[in-house]
Amino acid sequence: MVGHRSQVAKDLFAGIQPKLREVFQTQSRVFLTSSSGTGLWEGMLRSCTSGRLLLLTCGAFGERWAEVAQSNGIPFDQASVSWGSPNSPEQLEKALAKRRYAALALVHNETSTGILNPLKEIADVARVFDPEMLILVDAVSSAGGVPIATQDWGLDVVVTSSQKCFALPPGLAFSAVSDRAIDHALKVTHRGWYFDAVRLDKALSKNGTPATPAISLLYALDKQLDRILEEGLTNRYIRHADLAQRAQSWAVEHMDLYAQEGYRSPTVTCIRNTRNLDLTALNDHLSLSGMTIASGYGPLKDQTFRIGHMGELRVEDLEILFREIEAFMEM
Ligand SMILES: Cc1ncc(COP(=O)(O)O)c(C=O)c1O
């Protein structure tokens, strides 16, 4: 293993940065931490929120961010919609008409319900109301699989994890961060240490992280970023849209969809378990062919199940999965 302050590690880090910026569609900076997405998201929320936060929620991950804000002592208001529905620009307009916020946070792709929020439209409303308000986006299950024009849409923080659309092992998290976010962070007194945006920024300017990164995963990341860019972002988005199309048509044919039409996720399909399938037995069956599906999240545990179709999956992979689910249903 090379030392994390060695020239080799610095060169590796320096080589990764422009590729990450390309994927995030930003010219500013992309932080990289050795943690899952939750860790980096908590750090960005804590270190960049310089006043009151507005949190839009539509499912379990949004609820988690309310807990994170609460436990970090960040003053916040939460605007929710029922699960299965998206957050909307109109909902944001209403909330912003009532008071001013230092930051807005939302989940782009709510993995618990299979909803893709209209991020650009929401960001447009936020920018019209307040050019200085930060826009923080949990893009854990969308970045790399769904278009996100970080810079053009005026997004300040866009966080993702390595194990979703990047199709890497878990253990790394990435966040595009704007200059505006760093300016806000400089006004925050207690930013923490490990995930402090200002500290991460200083370390990044020297091609490193404040503490030892998971170097072996960085090699995998470097390679996978080449693969992603070789496929081309547009092709990757189209492939994910095709996967979703196929998953949705299969679900409608055999059961039903949970998420509201028009807002269904390109990376995860949440299916209503209208046939009352025993999901544990289904997964036991699928595991024989090396596959697995996710049961519903939290309160949706047995009512729904979810098929993640992101990363390097192809429609052919989905066909194999559907054949096996159909075989299970006939058993
Ligand atoms: C939308 C969303 N946000 C956050 C997370 C948490 O990410 P991690 O497990 O990498 O901390 C997940 C994980 O599935 C997610 O889907």
Would you mind describing this structure in some detail?
By secondary structure, this protein is α/β, with parallel strands linked by helices. The chain has helices at 7-24, 37-48, 60-71, 89-98, 119-129, 179-185, 197-205, 215-231, 233-254, 279-287, 315-330; strands at 29-33, 53-57, 76-80, 103-107, 109-110, 115-116, 134-138, 157-161, 173-177, 256-257, 268-272, 294-295, 304-308. A seven-stranded mixed β-sheet has the order 1-9-8-7-4-2-3, sandwiched between helices. The protein has a four-stranded antiparallel β-sheet with strand order 10-11-13-12, with helices on one face. Strands 5-6 form a two-stranded antiparallel ribbon. Helix 8 crosses helix 9. The protein is globular, with a radius of gyration of 20 Å. The protein binds pyridoxal-5'-phosphate.
Unreliable residue stretches: none
Radius of gyration: 20 Å
The ligands found in this model are: pyridoxal-5'-phosphate
What is the overall shape? Answer: globular
Q: Output the helix-strand order.
A: HEHEHEHEEEHEEEHHHHEEHEEH
Distance between the first and last residues' Cα:
50 Å
How large is the share of residues in beta strands?
15-25%
What is the percent of helical residues?
40-55%
**Total helical segments:** 11
Largest sheet: 7 strands, mixed
The counted number of beta strands is: 13
Mean pLDDT over all positions: 97
Structural class determined from secondary elements? alpha/beta
Strand order of the largest sheet: 1-9-8-7-4-2-3
